[in-house]
Amino acid sequence: MQAWQVHENGEPGEVMRLADVAPPTPGEGQVLLRVRAAAVNFPDALLCRGQYQVRPPLPFTPGVEVCAETEDGRRVIATPVLPHGGFAEYTLAHTAALLPAPEALDDARAAALHIGYQTGWFGLHRRARLEAGETLLVHAAAGGVGSAAVQLGKAAGATVIGVVGGPEKAAVARELGCDLVIDRKSEDVITVVKEATGGRGADVIYDPVGGTAYTQSTKVVAFEGRIVVVGFASGTIPSAALNHALVKNYAVLGLHWGLYTTKNPELVQHCHEQLTELAARGAISPLVSERVPLDRAAAAVQKVADGTSTGRIAVVMEEAA
């Protein structure tokens, strides 16, 4: 089979190599899957760089989110078991963790539903307890993780403010349904949010960026607001000033979705059922901006690493396209 492999850490476009290798052999509790589509995630870039919290042995195949087919013909979504990731014709997954692919979504969108939307659902509903009528601010609203949070926020009845970088991404955020879009490259985020909310600020802030975005969040979070820390796509991990959280009466909530897969798998299943229902009635649909063949996977991961993509890029297998 064909699979992308990383033999040394570095930039995805430089260290990912397409090779002919033997299909992986399932271990105990694992299943072999034929990949139909694999969504590109920022963690794939971090894996290549050796900067992710999980460091598989070299060589490994990146690709942490797939829509695939079991040997008995079931269409499923899964997070592959590293080092046998999803940028390959076949991958491995834990049998108990397989989820049925929603019928309402094609392979590319189904592949992009799992991590980003589960993260959004857990962040907004489990951690922040977002309520209808509240104001939600989403950083990187046109990205893969941010776009999921925007759709989930709108589905929950929130007023959604999206922060993006550039006019092209602003147009995407508007199409996603943001009630207000702020271009951080040409507008002052703090000023615009305060003006739009009458000085009150945002009740919930969803931050997959870190760095300057987190600093802005602390200045525009409402009384009893909640900042959900999802990731650090900016490359800068901020230090929370707890005295500031105390005097402004807001909460800083961490979210590592992967922990739920082992600590509370039943809740992951419940979340998937909720997402499947939302997809069935058209309330959510992963924003897949590009579909590329397997031989262009390295370039796709590099594009996500560079922060120049919008929504999700999906690697789609020709026979499943």
Automatic annotation (TrEMBL):
SUPFAM superfamilies assigned to the protein according to its UniProt record, in alphabetical order: GroES-like (SSF50129), NAD(P)-binding Rossmann-fold domains (SSF51735)
Q: Name one GO molecular function term.
A: oxidoreductase activity
Pfam family name, one? ADH_N
Which PROSITE patterns does the annotation name?
QOR_ZETA_CRYSTAL
Q: Give the matching InterPro entries.
A: ADH-like_C, ADH-like_N, ER, GroES-like_sf, NAD(P)-bd_dom_sf, Quin_OxRdtase/zeta-crystal_CS, Zn-ADH-like_protein
| Domain called Enoyl reductase (ER): residue spans | 13-315
PANTHER family registered for this protein in UniProt: QUINONE OXIDOREDUCTASE-LIKE PROTEIN 2, SHORT-CHAIN DEHYDROGENASE/REDUCTASE
Which named protein is this?
A: Oxidoreductase
Q: What species is given as this protein's source?
A: Streptomyces fumanus
